[in-house]
Amino acid sequence: MTEAALNCILKAIDQSENASKIKEARDNAGNDMIKRMQFVFPIVMMLQMDVIKEYGFSEGRHGIIQFGQLVRALEREDAEIALLHSKVRSHFLPDIPSSSGASL
């Protein structure tokens, strides 16, 4: 069920009207994380909320929290769910360049 929901979320994101809204919001936000959270994140979350209610989750904030908790729990054990969740997150998180020599 979770894998199917994540696939449907990705399909919704890729629909031309939604993809153009997300692209415009991403272009306006650039690589600024705060702007991404203000403009891109809400679009992706609305699409996600529309999809997950078809999978039995309640509408609104409570449903999105339940779904998120379920996904995070399952992605530890299921590489496919982890990959799909990563793809959804990539639509609102800025690209983070990796530096091979840096240590944290």
Q: Which helices and strands appear, and what pairs or packs with what?
A:
Elements: H1 2-14, H2 16-29, H3 33-52, H4 61-75, H5 79-89
Taking the sheet with the most strands, its summary is: none
Count of individual helical segments:
5
The tally of domains stands at 1
Query: Any low-confidence stretches, pLDDT <50, length ≥5?
Result: 98-104
Q: Which geometry do the CA atoms define?
A: globular
Order of helices and strands: HHHHH
The number of distinct β-strands equals 0
Radius of gyration, taken over Cα atoms and rounded to an integer in Å? 15 Å
Structural class: mainly alpha
The amount of beta strand, in percent, is under 5%
Kindly report the average pLDDT value: 87
Q: What is the straight-line distance between the termini?
A: 37 Å
Helix content: over 70%
Describe the protein's architecture and organization.
- The structure is a single chain.
- The chain is mainly alpha-helical.
- It has one domain (1-91).
- It contains five helices and no strands.
- The protein has helices at 2-14, 16-29, 33-52, 61-75, 79-89.
- The chain is globular and about 35 Å long.
- It is found in: Cytoplasm.
- Its main location: cytoplasm.
- One of its GO terms (biological process) is post-embryonic development.
